[in-house]
Specification:
mainly alpha, 5 helices, elongated
Length: 112
């Protein structure tokens, strides 16, 4: 995403659209440079915030265990790479062998 927005063409498009709405600046080259710097700072800030917010998203991939859209991928076995992630976040709340047995039943059941 960062590369799609953080380039001269994207900035020029944004600047032109703003200029169309509010009118041209009297000293365009000076304002253009200042706005370009501000534009890049805003894009960088948004990207940094998104990266910070979603940096732990991979550790929640165990939620796929209960995603009905992908049950058919796991008809014969519970995906073992998801279990340690679940155990790390919520280990004491689950008896893992029983959970795996129940998940396998759900994966194989056509009604689910």
């Amino acid at each position: 995403m960062n590369n799609e927005l953080r380039n001269n063409a994207a900035f020029n498009d944004c600047y032109s659209a703003a200029e169309t709405k509010v009118g041209a600046q009297t000293r365009r080259s000076e304002w253009h440079t200042n706005y370009k710097q501000l534009y890049y700072e805003v894009i960088d800030s948004i990207v940094a915030m998104c990266n910070e917010r979603f940096r732990d998203a991979e550790s929640f991939s165990f939620l796929d265990l209960v995603n009905p859209k992908i049950f058919n991928q796991w008809k014969n076995a519970v995906p073992q790479e998801k279990i340690p992630l679940l155990r790390e976040k919520y280990g004491p709340l689950f008896y893992i062998p029983k959970l795996q047995s129940q998940l396998l039943f759900v994966y194989q059941d056509q009604d689910f």
